[in-house]
Amino acid sequence: MAVHAVSSRLLPTPGLEQRHASRGIRTNGGRYELAAGSGDAEVSEFSVFDHRSMAHALQLAARGMFTTQPNPRVGCVIAQGETWVGEGAHLQAGGPHAEVFALRQAGAQARGATAYVTLEPCAHHGRTPPCAEALVAAQVKRVVVAAGDPFDQVNGRGVQRLREAGIEVQVGLMEAQARELNLGFYARVQRRRPFVRLKLASSLDGRIALANGASRWVTGAAARQDVQYWRARSSAILSSARTVEIDDPLLTVRLDQPFAPPLRVILAHRRLPPISARLFHDRATPTLLVAPPELLKGTDWPCQTLALPANEQGVELPQLLHALAERGINELHTECGGILAASLLRAELVDELLWYQAPRLLGGDSRPALGALGVTELTEQGRWRLLECRQVGEDLRLRLRPVAVPSI
């Protein structure tokens, strides 16, 4: 996947100015600020300097927010005593890993030093050599790891290799923050599907368009710009054929900083989107059209296609998510109409809601943000936990996760 280097600067973005109070993370314009000790099982194992060093490693990892997919975001700091002598971040799949950058900068000072790494060092030969071996060769004395790497070819092997070489290894410092930074990677590897974020934009009464279909714009310019951050950090953007037909969106990222263009995934059921739609003729960003096999016959589409079986409700969504995971999709950002949104929610496939609400009322004769959910009882089913409520321009942005979210 090519990286669009729009600018060499890493600029603050509205979506990155957020607070994760439950995990002790605050972000401010691309920089992570982490509360020391939050998320650690054994806080006493680690010193104040350990926490400060891992917090800086997480800040470094965030530099790859828009560019590392399908790889995880990883940062590394090398410290000699209580002085940082090297640092690095993984910025692009196939490029050097964070540990390699940090060791290069540290040079001979890495010998006898402590390495702080946000994810377990790899122990296998992939597109790059194993980082565990690089740390062993540099003769570091101690390695502090925030979170384990669940990838089959790592999954404890990196820690094992370091310990076999006589290196002291500690795992779990700021683990919650490190996992939060790579929610999509953990979902893809452990659950075999992407982390699904459903974006909705509506009036206060949950309406997305007037009865005549007019919808530009329900929310303000600041909210629409804020969405660019969430698109950019995702590996793919999912929408429906009906949304493409009605709104003719481009579904691209518009940010003045480097990003890897997310794959646009258009889901069709009974009818295909018009081949004249703008996104099919924008070759700078890849597009994947997903539909039942019989629907794809007879048309030469100017994009990738994927045939998946369907039932009466449409393409089977779990199969779609599995197919996207097989393509290396970590985070799936969804912008669609009420029908597909409701289908994802009914199937309990949404991991996070990103809901923008404009201070206006459109009334019951307008189009709703969600289709029928089939809720018959006010039980815990369908309850959401509020992570954040933030004003963006004149609108509100709510971030929520299911009360019974799977462990990631």
End-to-end C-alpha gap: 26 Å
Rg computed from alpha carbons, rounded to a whole number of angstroms: 22 Å
The helix content is 10-25%
Please list the strands of the largest sheet in the order they lie side by side.
Answer: 14-13-12-11-17-9-18-21-20
Number of helices: 11
Biggest β-sheet strands, sense, barrel:
9 strands, mixed
The CATH superfamily name of the largest domain is Dihydrofolate Reductase, subunit A
Shape: elongated
Number of strands: 21
Which regions have little confidence, pLDDT < 50, spanning 5+ residues? 1-43
Number of domains: 2
Say what the CATH topology of the largest domain is.
Answer: Dihydrofolate Reductase, subunit A
CATH class of the largest domain: Alpha Beta
Q: Mean of residue pLDDT?
A: 87
CATH architecture of the largest domain: 3-Layer(aba) Sandwich
Structural class by helix and strand composition: alpha/beta
Per DSSP, what share of the residues sits in E-state strands of 2 or more residues? 25-35%
Binding site for NADP(+): 201, 217, 243, 247, 337-343
Keywords: Hydrolase, Metal-binding, Multifunctional enzyme, NADP, Oxidoreductase, Riboflavin biosynthesis, Zinc
Catalytic activity: 2,5-diamino-6-hydroxy-4-(5-phosphoribosylamino)-pyrimidine + H2O + H(+) = 5-amino-6-(5-phospho-D-ribosylamino)uracil + NH4(+); 5-amino-6-(5-phospho-D-ribitylamino)uracil + NADP(+) = 5-amino-6-(5-phospho-D-ribosylamino)uracil + NADPH + H(+)
EC number: 3.5.4.26, 1.1.1.193
Question: Can you characterise this structure?
Answer:
Its EC number is 3.5.4.26, 1.1.1.193. Converts 2,5-diamino-6-(ribosylamino)-4(3h)-pyrimidinone 5'-phosphate into 5-amino-6-(ribosylamino)-2,4(1h,3h)-pyrimidinedione 5'-phosphate. Keywords: Hydrolase, Metal-binding, Multifunctional enzyme, NADP, Oxidoreductase, Riboflavin biosynthesis, Zinc. InterPro entries: APOBEC/CMP_deaminase_Zn-bd, CMP_dCMP_dom, Cytidine_deaminase-like, DHFR-like_dom_sf, Eubact_RibD, RibD_C, RibDG_C, Riboflavin_Biosynth_HTPR. 24% of the residues lie in helices and 26% in strands. It has 408 residues and is α/β, with parallel strands linked by helices. It folds into 2 domains: 168 residues, Cytidine Deaminase, domain 2, CATH 3.40.140; 214 residues, 3-Layer(aba) Sandwich (Dihydrofolate Reductase, subunit A). The strands form 5 sheets. Strands 14-13-12-11-17-9-18-21-20 form a 9-stranded mixed β-sheet. A 5-stranded mixed β-sheet has the order 5-4-6-7-8, with helices on both faces. The protein has a 3-stranded antiparallel β-sheet with strand order 1-2-3. The relative contact order is 0.13.
